[in-house]
């Protein structure tokens, strides 16, 4: 079965030809999952206020924390300090302005200081399963369903012997859905959502297996094998998502053109929505035609947090 390597966004670097992770900077994965809700609010606040360059005490106060507590928690969650995060957002914005034709002086005036922050790629090897397996809804496949932490909160992991089949997110205290916008779901709903995508598979619960995979990927920086159940068209769109640089976005129409089907924006949108492996296959980088965040199956706040985090690290 043919393998390919696809880039995604996570702060791991290469040294001496080996993949390393930022374990000297980052908190343990379980701690980062617990901190996600507060950090999502911090990312939104910093994303809204970076042009004013608020100081640490004012940002910490907005989060209801002391400056030292906020500085420590944010840095251990994000891998960079709040100030570096602000600088990276400014750097990314300046790059956009320059590409749009702004002068260096104008870009500097608009963004202020810029600073370091580079997102090193984590590589993911993905495999497409056979059309027969996909058509049969996973019939004959032995899958493992488990709960394990991620940097963006608690994750619902669905795993096969070939690799990760699906990743969703759990928000125990999410408000009930109102209208079209998703606010997040509890564990029971998240597990049922993933299992329903593979109705004919033999699924068993194993949180330990999920935690082991989460540690290997997010803490050790190991390549992630992915087993994709999907039609050839959907797999084509999911591969196109992987080609969007971390921190960048594309509209459904742009994604359709990239995938070679420029008149199929609606079908592309459906394929993006059907992406089973959140974050690693970055459907959060797809936007509505007017550039709005639109909706996200696991909550709009999480989509914004992912994009803001990537944008800062990619600058």
Detail the topology: elements first, then pairings.
Elements: E1 4-9, E2 12-15, E3 18-21, H1 29-49, H2 56-62, H3 67-78, H4 82-99, H5 104-111, E4 121-128, H6 131-135, E5 142-150, E6 153-160, E7 163-170, H7 187-196, E8 202-205, H8 207-219, E9 224-228, H9 232-242, E10 250-251, H10 252-258, H11 265-273, E11 286-287, H12 300-314
Parallel strand pairs: 4-9, 5-8, 10-11
Antiparallel strand pairs: 1-4, 2-3, 5-6, 6-7
Helix pairs in contact: 1-3, 1-12, 2-3, 4-5, 4-12, 10-11
Describe the protein in words.
This protein has helices at residues 29-49, 56-62, 67-78, 82-99, 104-111, 131-135, 187-196, 207-219, 232-242, 252-258, 265-273, 300-314, and strands spanning 4-9, 12-15, 18-21, 121-128, 142-150, 153-160, 163-170, 202-205, 224-228, 250-251, 286-287. The protein is of the alpha/beta class and 315 residues long. It has a 4-stranded mixed β-sheet with strand order 7-6-5-8. It has a 3-stranded mixed β-sheet with strand order 1-4-9, with helices on one face. A two-stranded antiparallel ribbon has the order 2-3. α1 (29-49) crosses α3 (67-78). The radius of gyration is 20 Å and the shape is globular. The chain starts with a strand and ends with a helix.
Number of strands: 11
General shape: globular
The CATH topology of the largest domain comes to Arc Repressor Mutant, subunit A
* Helix content percent band: 40-55%
Mean pLDDT: 74
In the residues, how many domains can be counted?
2
State the name of the first-level CATH class of the largest domain.
Answer: Mainly Alpha
**Annotated CATH architecture of the largest domain:** Orthogonal Bundle
CA radius of gyration:
20 Å
DSSP helix count? 12
Across the major sheet, the strand order is 7-6-5-8
The largest pleated sheet is described as: 4 strands, mixed
Q: Segments where pLDDT lies below 50 for 5+ residues?
A: 1-24, 112-131
Distance between the termini: 36 Å
């Amino acid at each position: 079965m043919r393998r390919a390597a696809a880039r995604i966004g996570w702060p791991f670097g290469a040294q001496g030809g080996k993949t390393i992770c930022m374990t000297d900077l980052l908190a343990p994965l379980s701690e980062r999952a617990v901190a996600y809700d507060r950090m999502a609010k911090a990312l939104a606040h910093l994303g809204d206020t970076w042009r004013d360059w608020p100081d640490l005490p004012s940002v910490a106060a907005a989060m209801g924390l002391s400056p030292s507590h906020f500085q420590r928690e944010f840095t251990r969650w994000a891998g960079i300090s709040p100030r570096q995060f602000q600088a990276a957002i400014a750097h990314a914005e300046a790059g956009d302005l320059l590409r749009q034709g702004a002068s260096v002086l104008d870009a500097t005036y608009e963004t202020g200081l810029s600073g370091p922050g580079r997102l090193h790629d984590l590589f993911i090897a993905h495999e497409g399963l056979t059309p027969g397996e996909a058509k049969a809804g996973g019939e004959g496949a032995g899958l493992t369903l488990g709960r394990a932490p991620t940097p963006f909160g608690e994750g619902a992991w669905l795993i096969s012997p070939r690799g990760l089949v699906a990743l969703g997110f759990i928000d125990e205290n999410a408000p009930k859905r109102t209208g079209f916008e998703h606010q997040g779901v509890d564990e029971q709903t998240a597990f049922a959502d993933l299992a329903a995508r593979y109705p004919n598979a033999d699924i068993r619960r194993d949180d330990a297996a999920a935690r082991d995979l989460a540690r290997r990927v997010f803490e050790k920086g190991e390549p992630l094998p992915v087993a994709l159940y999907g039609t050839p068209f959907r797999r084509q769109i999911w591969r196109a998502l992987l080609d969007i640089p971390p921190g960048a976005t594309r509209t459904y129409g742009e994604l359709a053109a990239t995938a070679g089907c420029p008149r199929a924006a609606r079908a592309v949108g459906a394929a993006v929505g059907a992406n089973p492996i959140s974050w690693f296959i970055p459907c959060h980088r797809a936007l509505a035609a007017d550039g709005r965040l639109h909706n996200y199956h696991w909550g709009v706040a999480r989509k914004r947090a992912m994009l803001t985090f990537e944008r800062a690290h990619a600058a």
